[in-house]
Design a protein that fits this description.
By secondary structure, the protein is of the alpha/beta class. It is built from ten helices and twelve strands. It binds adenosine-5'-diphosphate (ADP) and magnesium ion.
Length: 269
């Protein structure tokens, strides 16, 4: 899998949501999209998933212009966890997750489907709740059920992991710390098998610890991109988030940057 943005812009009427975005990502990489609220992160993820069409520029998925790929083929190539997944029907967790089968022309037997369903529901920690009505779950549990649905979308077709793309919009937003680790481990496992993941995160420390490549967005443009140590500096975090200029430390064992709230508080009067 390769994902290439070439000078991509997206406008709605006179509003320039993102402008002149260029980056290249490859199989085996975890890309973190960071930036303040409204910076254009979700817009870029929707563009990468083919849910929005660029106003100008080009998006290449496995060297094909994403606009030329059929909806069916796209469903086998990429899966997207949206920032919010509204649901009004009273589905159980299993019913919700099995919706993933519907977008695919798969050749699975009933028992293969059952096995895959159980495996993916188990992997997000919802085995005990598989028969529960989605509407009775906590926000974090609902978010993990949707994560299971999109993981199943990729697992249930015959395309090799190396030519698939996982797009996750704030997958940790409703999760407790143990679930952070569990979800990020799942993503890492997927990428180690050869997949690619583009993830929107707000936690700078998780992004630093976890990502191979960070794209830091500011007002619809790329402010900086590269490995964590290159992007997460006092200068960039000051300019983009308005953070104090003394926060960034170096985690010796990994050589990656980190920052702690205690230091931010000491700057307050
Ligand atoms: N339909 C729209 N018309 C005008 N502006 C929009 C529209 N949809 C989104 N925006 C604006 O585009 C910007 C980028 O949105 P988004 O990509 O969701 O940001 P992020 O995910 O980084 O918080 C925001 O400022 C948002 O208000
Ligand atoms: Mg967003």
């Amino acid at each position: 899998m390769s994902l290439i943005f070439e000078n991509v812009s997206y406008h709605i009427k006179e509003h320039n949501l993102v402008g002149e975005i260029s980056f290249t990502a490859h199989a085996g990489q975890i890309i973190a999209l960071l930036g303040p609220n409204g910076a254009g992160k979700s817009t870029i993820l929707d563009l990468a998933g083919g849910l929005k069409t660029p106003t100008s520029g080009k998006i290449l998925l496995n060297n094909s212009d994403i606009g030329t790929i059929s909806a069916y083929k796209l469903a086998t190539m990429r899966a997207l966890l949206a920032q919010e997944s509204p649901l009004t029907a009273p589905f159980s967790v299993t019913e919700l997750v099995s919706l993933a089968f519907q977008s695919l022309d798969h050749t699975l037997t009933m028992s293969q489907k059952k096995h895959l369903l159980e495996e993916v529901i188990n992997s997000v920690g919802l085995a005990e709740k598989s028969t529960r009505n989605m509407q009775t779950l906590s926000g974090g549990e609902r978010q993990r059920a949707h994560l299971a649905r999109i993981l199943l979308q990729l697992a249930a077709n015959n395309r090799p992991t190396e030519s698939q793309l996982l797009l996750l919009d704030e997958p940790l937003s409703a999760q407790d710390p143990a679930q952070h680790l569990m979800i990020l481990s799942l993503i890492r496992h997927y990428v180690r098998k050869g997949g690619m993941a583009v993830i929107i995160l707000h936690d700078l420390n998780w992004a630093s610890a976890f990502a191979d490549h960070i794209i830091l967005l500011h007002q619809g443009h790329i402010y900086a991109q590269g490995p964590p140590g290159h992007v997460l500096t006092n200068a960039t975090l000051g300019s983009v988030f308005g953070l104090p200029s003394f926060l960034v430390k170096q985690h010796k064992p990994t050589n990656r940057p980190y920052l702690i709230p205690h230091d931010m508080l000491s700057g307050l009067s």
